[in-house]
Design a protein that fits this description.
Layout lengths: L1 E5 L4 H12 L3 E6 L15 E5 L17 E4 L10 H16 L6 E7 L8 H14 L4 E7 L2 E2 L4 H12 L2 E5 L5 E2 L2 E2 H10 L9 E5 L5 E2 H12 L4 E5 L4 H11 L4 H11 L10 H4 L7 H8 L4 E2 L7 H6 L10 E2 L6 E8 L3 H8 L12 H13 L20 E2 L2 E7 L4 E6 L5 E10 L2 E10 L1 H27 L2
Parallel strand pairs: 1-2, 1-4, 2-3, 4-5, 5-6, 6-11, 7-10, 8-13
Antiparallel strand pairs: 9-12, 14-15, 16-21, 17-18, 18-19, 19-20, 20-21
C-alpha cells in the first residue's frame, strides 16, 4: 500500500514508520519542515517526504492523489492554549484534501472518552474524531489512555516525579483510574487494523492488562526501579497549582501540564471489545511495560520482531540505526575530535581496556576499579576476552559490549560497575570525526548527586582519552 503518515516527526509517528516499511508499504511522510525530519538513512529509499501544514491550505496540494491509507497522528496540545480550535481546523482541512484522493482508510489515534464529563483535551480529541468520520473514507479510531514508553509525555511525568521526589504531596486526582498501555502494543494495534474491513467506520478502546490509579502507577514505577517512595494525597490542590507542580518538578511544558492535569481527573478505562483477540495481540501489563521501557538499549519500534527481516536482506536496514542509548531522563557528556587516520583510530578503540588501559589517566580508572570492588562490584579484574577484537557480549573491565561494528565505526559499552543509575559509553565515527558520548541515567536523588560530583573529572578523563585515541 501507499500510506500517508501524518505526524511523522512525532513520538508515535517516528516509531511507526519503520514498522510500516518492514511490512512492505511505501510511506509518504507528511512534515511541516523537511529540515527537521531526519529518518535513518536505510529508510530513505522507501519513503517520500512532503511538506504539509494542515493549517495552511496552500500546502495541502502536496499530498499525492494515489494514497491507499493514511494515519492521522497530529495534535496541538502543547503548542497553544486554543489548541482545540487548531486541531479541529487541521482535521477539517485534512478531510477536505484527503477525500480527493484514492484513500480507503484513515486510522486515527485518539484518547479514551467514555465518561460523560470530559477534559478539554479529550473533548478536542473526540471532536476531531467526529470531523474525520464525516468523510468519504473509512475511519478507524483507536482510543488509548496513558502510553508507557520512553518519550511519551505522560510516562515522562511519571518517571520525573518518582525519580526526583522521595516524598510526594499530591492532588486527589492520583486516585483516578486509568488503563495504561505499552507503546509496543499501541504500535501493534496501529499496524494490525490497517486494511482490515471489520475495523472500518468503528472505534476501539485499547489498553494494557491492568487498571490502576495514578498513585499505583507511580508506586509501580518506583518498585521496578527499586526506589522507596511515599505519596500523600491532599484534597486542596487546585488544577492550576497541580499544573505548576508538574511544570516545576518534571520536564513538561506548562501548557502540556495544564492539559494533562485536566485529563487526569477523568477515568480512562477501556470498554470491552474483541479487537485484541481478532488481531491476536496480547497487551502486556504495567510492570512489564515499565521494565521494557527501562531496557539498556532503546529500541525504535518493535525491533525485536523484525530482526529476521534484517537478516534476510529484504531491506538494506542498518540494525544500529534502530538501537539507541536512552536519552529521556539522562545526563550526557558528548565530545568530538577529528582524526587523520580512521584505521589507526579504530584499531586503538578496538584495543581499549584490559592490558592496553584507557589511554589517559589510567591511575584514575584503577582507583575507580578499586572503589567498585570495595562495594562488591566487578572492578577492573575481568580485563578483556580478546586483545584486538570486540564482540557483542564481551567484557571490557567493568563495561559490557552492547554493540561493536568496526566497519561502521561504532562501539557501545554499558557499565556493570556499582552505580546509582545506569551508564553507557559510546564511540561513533562521522566522516573524519570521532564522537564520544557518556550517558548516565540517574536512579533517584543519589544518582543526580553522583553525576554532579564526578562531572569535573569528565573534563579530564574523557577529553584526554578522546585526544589519545584520535592522535597518531
Amino acid at each position: 500500500m501507499k500510506i500517508l503518515l501524518t505526524g511523522a516527526t512525532g513520538y508515535i509517528g517516528k516509531l511507526l514508520l519503520p514498522i510500516l516499511i518492514d511490512a512492505g508499504h511505501k510511506v509518504v511522510c507528511s512534515v511541516r519542515d523537511k529540515a527537521r525530519f531526519n529518518p535513518p538513512s536505510s529508510l530513505v529509499d522507501f519513503i517520500e517526504v512532503i511538506e504539509v501544514d494542515f493549517l495552511d491550505q496552500n500546502s495541502l496540494q502536496n499530498i499525492p492523489k494515489d494514497i491507499d491509507a493514511a494515519y492521522y497522528l497530529m495534535h496541538a496540545m502543547s503548542t497553544s492554549e486554543n489548541y482545540e480550535v487548531l486541531e479541529q481546523q487541521a482535521a477539517q482541512n485534512f478531510v477536505h484534501q484527503v477525500s480527493q484522493t484514492t484513500v480507503k482508510q484513515v486510522i486515527y489515534l485518539s484518547g479514551i472518552s467514555n465518561e460523560r464529563t470530559l477534559s478539554k483535551h479529550l473533548t478536542s480529541r473526540l471532536a476531531v474524531e467526529q470531523i474525520l468520520s464525516r468523510s468519504t473514507f473509512n475511519l478507524t479510531t483507536l482510543r488509548a489512555g496513558i502510553i508507557i514508553g520512553s518519550g511519551s509525555a505522560s510516562y515522562e511525568i511519571i518517571r520525573d516525579l518518582v525519580e526526583k521526589l522521595p516524598v510526594m504531596i499530591a492532588p486527589k486526582w492520583l486516585k483516578t483510574k486509568c488503563q495504561p498501555i505499552a507503546v509496543e502494543d499501541v504500535l501493534a494495534f496501529l499496524k494490525g487494523v490497517l486494511g482490515q474491513p471489520f475495523c472500518y467506520d468503528k472505534h476501539f478502546d485499547i489498553g494494557g492488562k491492568d487498571v490502576l490509579n495514578y498513585k499505583q502507577m507511580l508506586l509501580g514505577y518506583a518498585k521496578v526501579r527499586g526506589l522507596k517512595r511515599s505519596i500523600i494525597t491532599v484534597p486542596v490542590m487546585s488544577p492550576r497549582l497541580s499544573s505548576y507542580w508538574l511544570y516545576f518538578v518534571t520536564s513538561t511544558s506548562y501548557k502540556l501540564a495544564v492539559a494533562l492535569v485536566n485529563s487526569m481527573k477523568i477515568e480512562v478505562v477501556c470498554k470491552p471489545n474483541e479487537l485484541a483477540e481478532k488481531l491476536q495481540i496480547s497487551p502486556m501489563g504495567y510492570t512489564q511495560a515499565i521494565e521494557k521501557t527501562l531496557l539498556n538499549i532503546a529500541e525504535k519500534g518493535t525491533i525485536s520482531s523484525w530482526k529476521d527481516a534484517f537478516i534476510s536482506g529484504r531491506f538494506n536496514f542498518k540494525l544500529s540505526e534502530f538501537l539507541t542509548v536512552p536519552t529521556h531522563g539522562c545526563y550526557t557528556d558528548q565530545r568530538s575530535r577529528t582524526f587523520s587516520s580512521r584505521v589507526q583510530t579504530l584499531n586503538k578503540l578496538w584495543a581499549i581496556g584490559g592490558e592496553t588501559g584507557w589511554y589517559y589517566a589510567n591511575f584514575l580508572w584503577r582507583i575507580r576499579g578499586y572503589l567498585d570492588k570495595l562495594v562488591g562490584g566487578v572492578g577492573l579484574r575481568r580485563g578483556r576476552t580478546n586483545k584486538k577484537e570486540l564482540l557483542v557480549g564481551d567484557a571490557v573491565d567493568f563495561w559490557r559490549v552492547l554493540y561493536a561494528n568496526k566497519k561502521e565505526g561504532r562501539l557501545l559499552l554499558f557499565a556493570e560497575m556499582r552505580l546509582p543509575g545506569e551508564a553507557w559509553l559510546e564511540f561513533k565515527t562521522e566522516g573524519n570525526k570521532l564522537i564520544q558520548t557518556a550517558t548516565f541515567r540517574p536512579k533517584g536523588l543519589s544518582g543526580r548527586l553522583y553525576w554532579y560530583m564526578v562531572l569535573p573529572l569528565h573534563g579530564i578523563i574523557f577529553e584526554g582519552m578522546l585526544r589519545k585515541i584520535t592522535s597518531l
